[in-house]
Amino acid sequence: MAKRIRPDHSPETRGEMPLGALRVGSRWGKQLREIMDGLPPSVFAGLLSLDGTVLYVNQASLSVITAKLDDVQGKPFDETPWWQFSESARIKLREAIASAAAGVPSRFEFSMYDSVGKPLILDFSIHPVVERGGKIVYLAISASNVTDRKHAEHMLCLTQFGVDHAYGAVFRIAQSGRFLYVNHAGCDLIGFSQDELLNLSVHDIDTRITGAEWPQRWDDLKAQGALRFESIYRRRDGTEIPIEGSASYLEYEGEEYSFVYVVDVTQRKLHEEKIRRLAYYDEVTGLPNRTFLRQELESLLDTSQHIRHPVVLMEIELIHLRDVNFTFGQDNGDRLLNEVGARISRMLREKEFVARVGNVQFAVVLPDLATASAPARALQLLEALEAPFPVANISYELGARIGIALFPGHATDVDTLLRKADVALYQAKQSGQRHATYRADQDPYQLGRLEMIGRVRRAIVEGQFQLYCQPKLDLRTNQIVGAEALVRWQHPDLGLVAPDQFVPLIESTDLIHFLTQFMLEAAVSQCYSWEQHGIHIPLAVNLSPRNLTEPDLVSNLQYLLTTWGAKPGWLGIEITEGTLLKDPVAAIAELHRLHEMGIRLFIDDFGTGYSSLSYLMRLPVDVIKIDHGFTMNMLHDKGAAAIVKSTIELAHNLGMSVVAEGAESREICDTLLALGCDEAQGYFISPPIPAERFVEWLSSSGYQCMSDSSSPVH
User: Fold this and answer.
1) CB of 119 within 8 A of CB of 148?
2) Which CATH class is domain 469-705?
3) Which is more confidently placed, 625 or 4?
4) What's this model's pTM, rounded to 2 decimal places?
C-alpha cells in the first residue's frame, strides 16, 4: 500500500521540482532529513525521484560507502556504489523502482561490501510516497543491515544440520529423564524411530540406571555442569551395546535440559580386549605372559608382605624344544608348547598359576608354599615334564630344569625375585642339576658387577690403566729374553685393582676390545722406548676369545707396528686353549694370519683347557706355556710332575718352545732346567713390574738381556 506523507504548503514545497523541496532552507526537507538521520546506524534511508534519481540519503547510508551526499545526489540510484557488486541486484533494483513508481512497493535482499571490504547483507525496500490527491511524488527507500542475523540463522541451520547428521548419537533430555530430541544416529544406535524414542526415558534404554536413581544422576550433572560416562544401552531388539558418552547441563528460560552425546564403542572394546590378550597372554599357549606375571607378582608380594606368607617362584626351562622345531617344524613345536603348558597347569593347586615367559621358559608361582617343600614340588613338575610327549606320531622325551627363588628370603620385590630365579636356573644348568635354589655366593650377576663395568669404562677414558711387565728367563743362558705384558688398574679411590676383579667381568662386553687395544699400544710403544736404549725385550700380550674374532685385528696390528716403526718380533700374542672352543676353524685361520706377520704365538695355561692334540698340531704356535698350577706342585705331586715333563717333551717334538709359569723358587727352576724346559716365569725371577721401572730392575737384578736385536726373540 502506497505511503502518504503530508508535505507542508509553504511556497518552497509547491514547486514541481522535488529536489527543491529538500533544499537546506526548506522546513519540510529539514524535518525529513532529521528523521532519516536519526534512524539507528543499521538502518539506511533516502528518497528517490520517480525515475530513480537520488534526492537524499541519510548519513548511515553514506557511511557504509564512505561518501558525501554530493557524491550521489542527483545520480541514478542504480549507478551508485551500493549496487556495483552485483548485476542481478541492479536488475532487481530497476524493476523495483519501476514497480514503486507505478504504486507497488518492493522488498528484497542483496549483498554488497563496505568501504573496507567487509561483506554486508541488506534487507532493502522501496515504497511510493503519495500526495493527498493520490499523485506519487517520491520513492522512499530503506535498508536494514541484516548481516549478523543472516549469519546467525545460517549457523543455526548449519548446527542443526550437523547435529541431525552427526556421527554420534545426540539426545536432548528433560529433567524428568524423558527424551525431547534425538538425531538420526541416535535412532540408528538404539533401533527406535524418533517418535518411539520421544515416548521413552533414559532408564528405559540405559541398563545401569533405574528410574529411582535418575533424580540423583540429574543432581550430580547439575552440580558438575558436565559428565563423562560409560554404560550399556539396550536396543529395541533386546541386544546390548557398550557406549561412551558425555552429558552437559543447560538451563534456558526456566527449563532444565541435558544434551548428551553418545558413541557405540563395541569395536573399540573388542580391539581393547584383543590388545589386552596380546599384552597379557601368550599367543601360542594362551597362558599368561611375562607382563601378566609381573603384575600378578606385584599384587601378590604386596599382599604376602602384610600377611607374612611366603611365595615360591620357579622358572622352568625346556631342554630339547629346539630339536623338535628343527626336526618336526614350528607347528609341532607350538603344539608341544601347548601340551607343556597344559601339563604344568594340571599339576597346580588353587591360587597357583603358570606363565610362559620366554621361548622355552615357563614360570610357576606358588603362594603359601612352605619353602622347605619347594624342591619336592620342583621334582614333581620335572617328573611330569620328563614323561614322553606325543609329537608327530612318536613319543618324545623333552627334559627340563628348574631354578627356584623365594619371597621374602631371596627378594622382596618383583624385579629381584625374577632375576634370582633366572640366576638359579643358570646355576642348575652350570652344575648339571635338574633343579637349583638360588645361592647368593654363586651369583656372578650382583649389582657390584655392573658398577665395576661402569668404572672400567671410565678408567679407559681417564687413563687409569698401567702396563706392568713380568720377565721371562732363559734357563740355559740365564738371560732375560722377554716379558709378559700385564694390565694393572690404579683406581683413584680403590687403589690397585687386580685383573681378576675386572677382566672376567668385561670379557663378554665390547670393553675388552678397548682394554686390549690399550695393552697392544702400550706394549709396542714400550718396546720402542727400550729399543731406543739398546734393550731388546719383546712383550707378549694376552688376547681374549672375543679379540681373536675381531675382523680388524690383523689390520689394526699392522697399522700399530707401522706407526711405531716396530718389527713384528717385538710383539707376542698369548691365547688360552678355550679361545678355540667357539669357532675353531675361524680362530685357527686368524692365528695363521698373525703368524704370517711374524708375530710369535703362545698357548697360555696349557693343560687347563681344551687340550686337543689334533688342534695343537694344526696351530701355528711357537711357544707352549705350562700353567703355574702344575709347575708349583710338581716337586711334591707326581701327577703334576708327569704333566710338566710330558708337556715339555710334546712341545719339543712339535717344534715348539716351552715357558713354565709359577717359577717360585730356585729348586723349581733347577728342576725345570733338568727337564729341558726353555724358559721360566715367576716370582723367584721377578713379580710383575711397572713398565717404567723395568730397566731399573734389570740393572739391579744380576740378569742380562740380549743386546743384539738380530738374536732369536723369546
Assistant:
1) no
2) alpha beta
3) 625
4) 0.51
